[in-house]
Amino acid sequence: MSGQDKTRATVDIYGQPYKIVGTESTSHIRLVASIVDDKMREISKKNPYLDINKLAVLTAVNIVNEYVKLKEEYEMLEKKLHQKEE
Hints:
Blueprint: E1 7-13, E2 16-22, H1 26-46, H2 52-85
Antiparallel strand pairs: 1-2
């Protein structure tokens, strides 16, 4: 897709519809929304009295934590690969 192509998708996250516009494919947008929805439901089961705002923030914190760990692991593996190449 070129920088100007926009994909639009309506997704359901935690029982609420959202219209998402982006440059990724519709299937990618739906996958991302599904992961957010799953994580919100997982956290809500453990903390059923959280209001929606706190639930959303905790979901974001959890997902970013997972991202940072994966990024660090990727960078470590990339460093090991470059060391083997030398």
